[in-house]
Amino acid sequence: MGRNYTLSAILRGLLVYLLPFVLVGWYLDVVWPALALALLLKLCWHYYYINRLTGWLWDSRTLLPPMGKGVWTDIFDGIYRTLRRNQVRQRSLSTLIKRFRQASEAMPDAAVVLKEDGTVTWANKLAQLYFGLQWPGDNGIRITNLIRHPRFVKFFKNGDFSQAVTMHSPAHASMEVEVRVMPYADNQFLLIARDVTQLTKLERMRKDFVANVSHELKTPLTVMQGYLEMLDEPDLLPAKQLHKAIHDMTAQTARMQNMVNQLLELSRIESSGPDSFTEEVDMAALIRSCVHDVSLLNSEKQHRIEVSLDDHLNVYGSADKLRAVVMNLLTNAIKYSPAGGTINLSWQRRHLAAAFSISDTGPGIGSEHLSRLTERFYRIDADRNSATGGTGLGLSIVKHALEHHRSRLQIDSKVGQGSRFSFVIPAELIVQAKGSAT
């Protein structure tokens, strides 16, 4: 039977169906009862297939349609084709949604889809991490009830999303996130948040760095400028004062040169890529070389430097960075210890790892300073032009050099009891002695 049903075709088909009943009824002189019987049979036939259609649509677990006759063949076939098309569209849509969610999960930012009234309709894993959301448990809850930070609540209620808002993460107090809200689709919003903790930290460090460098250079430049103004009239300057001026300017120049060298060294360590750990470093020989190199600096104070070294304990790493660590720690011990003191150097095996320590008999360090000693330009002396001449960069260099060797600086000190600086090189960077078990 054709699929293009018109009113004339339906009437023609009905007449063809009724004609035999009419003829038999006319022959038997029961036309109207015969016609009524024909219509009743036609109605029962249609109700039978309506029942089969209902059972297929609501109770059947298969997509295949029941067998039909006449117009019902085309009805079943049409519904089946429609269901198949919808099934294909649904699968395609499900695949598209799955890919969208996979792409959203792969994003380096947190993403939350919001309705016009601010209720959550979807959130990726980073959003759950940054804001403590629970998906799908938080579905349909207003975002301002989930993120209660006053700055965000005010930002969202104002409705002006032209600028981003930065705030602390509700789930991690130490994390700072930048939040943007963008309208899209049919009155929906997309909330994007990214972790800017490191960027904020770097910006703060940049500002502190500029301020500290400016402050460090201001004192020596002021001293040199003053002496240069005095040298502008050399006839009025006594020989003794002239000698002092030259001595002070030389000292300030050396101090600035030392600071520039340390800044370059710190920058080189920070900007260097990850170490391959293929270079074998003889730490005992390196430490002895450092002790020899500081002998001139130690000649004035005459410290007794005692060493206890394991000559067979080598490590994988950067000799330059490890040398910078030992030299800075040893130089500090000599500078800050009173004359005639004792400095103990130790490089020994500790279980599977290797431990280095250096202790002195200096004045010690107050507990309020210990957590900040590795900050750039931080110094205990209030006078930046103190006799020690330090720049406040040495321990910062030590910190970053040790980080490249998966280690960190440990500081133990009490006022009046000296100080001890130590670090541990992990077992995976220890060179196994020949013949030993790996």
Question: Which structural traits does this protein have?
Answer:
Sig_transdc_His_kin-like_C; 5-stranded antiparallel sheet; 50% helix; alpha+beta; elongated; 5-stranded mixed sheet; 438 residues; single chain; cell membrane
**Roughly what is the average pLDDT, rounded to an integer?**
82
Strand order of the largest sheet: 2-1-5-4-3
Q: Name the overall outline.
A: elongated
Low-confidence stretches: 382-386
The proportion of strand residues reads: 15-25%
Radius of gyration: 43 Å
Helix percentage range:
40-55%
This entry's quaternary arrangement is single chain
What is the number of beta strands? 12
Short description, anyone?
With 438 residues, the chain is of the alpha+beta class. It has 13 helices and twelve strands.
Verbal overview:
- Helix 1 (7-28) packs across helix 2 (31-58), helix 9 (283-293) crosses helix 11 and helix 11 runs antiparallel to helix 13 (394-403).
- The chain has 438 residues and is α+β, with helices and mostly antiparallel strands.
- It has helices at residues 7-28, 31-58, 71-106, 125-131, 143-146, 150-158, 197-230, 239-271, 283-293, 295-298, 319-336, 367-370, 394-403; strands at 110-114, 120-123, 165-168, 176-184, 188-195, 280-281, 304-309, 315-316, 342-350, 353-359, 410-413, 419-425.
- The strands form 3 sheets. It has a 5-stranded antiparallel sheet, with helices on both faces. A 5-stranded mixed sheet has the order 7-9-10-12-11, covered by helices on one side. Strands 6-8 form a two-stranded antiparallel sheet.
- It is 50% helix and 15% strand.
- The longest helix is centred in the first third of the chain and has 36 residues, at 71-106.
- Mean pLDDT is 82; it is low at 382-386.
